[in-house]
Amino acid sequence: MEVNGIELKKYELKPLPYNIDALEPYISKDIMDVHYNGHHKGYVNTSNTLIDRFSKIVKGDAQTGTYDIQGVVRGLVFNINGHKLHSMFWNNMAPEGKGGGAPGGKIADLIEKQYGSFDRFKQLFTEVANSLPGTGWTTLNYDTENGNLQIMTFENHFQNQLAELPILMLADEFEHAYYLQYKNKRTDYISAWWNVINWSDVENKLRKYL
Ligand code: MN
Residue 72 Cα, ligand 1 centroid: separation in angstroms? Predict the structure, then answer.
């Protein structure tokens, strides 16, 4: 769409980096179908709808007082972040054989240095993920200010992806990410998720900042 000669670009749903059933048995094909073709596509489509709405406001086609600008911006934050988080999430997983296990490389060195061992790190990350109230994400971030690997959480999609605190690894804890397969056993889903973590992706993300 064009506004006064300025083009606002739309988002696109990129293909998954593997087949829709590739993360079986840990994450079922049905989950992936609903999650990717339903939820992620929804974030992309709604982002694009809201970009149109915001463009009308920018252009002056909508009179002040006739729209809820906080609502539009909050919707943009939720949906744009939803799109970006899910794009990261898909690439952060890999089928059995390519994913899971323990990491090597720089990420393994940093984990050992800051957490003592991979097992201790895994235990703590799991403890954080399992105790997250309600809906949100648990992430491993690299703090470019002090070089710390920091386990973090945020509710819903309300995370601004600070360039100074990039996400290396992330677990989606919305019910849509596990309910079809694990019902209310979110802890079982988190245990299964460790089997499909794409450590090469984590390593590549980290190396951008070293
Ligand atoms: Mn999700």
Answer: 21
Calculate how far, in angstroms, residue 70's C-alpha sits from the geometric centre of ligand 1: 23
pLDDT tens by residue, 60-109: 877 777 889 999 999 999 999 999 999 999 999 999 999 999 999 999 99
Summarised one tens digit per residue, pLDDT across range 147-180 is 999 999 999 999 877 889 999 999 999 999 999 9
Q: How far is the CA of 27 from the centre of ligand 1 (A)?
A: 13
Tell me the CATH class for 105-207.
Answer: alpha beta
What is the residue extent of each domain of the chain?
105-207
DSSP secondary structure of the chain: -EETTEEPPPP--PPPSS-TTTTTTTS-HHHHIIIIIIIIHHHHHHHHHHHHHHHHHHHT-S-TTSS-HHHHHHHHHHHHHHHHHHHHHHHTB--BTTB-S---HHHHHHHHHHHSSHHHHHHHHHHHHHT--SSEEEEEEE-TTT--EEEEEEETT-----TTS-EEEEEE-SGGGTHHHHTT-HHHHHHHHGGGB-HHHHHHHHHTT-
Q: Is the pTM of this model over 0.90?
A: yes
Cα(45) to centroid of ligand 1, in Å?
A: 15
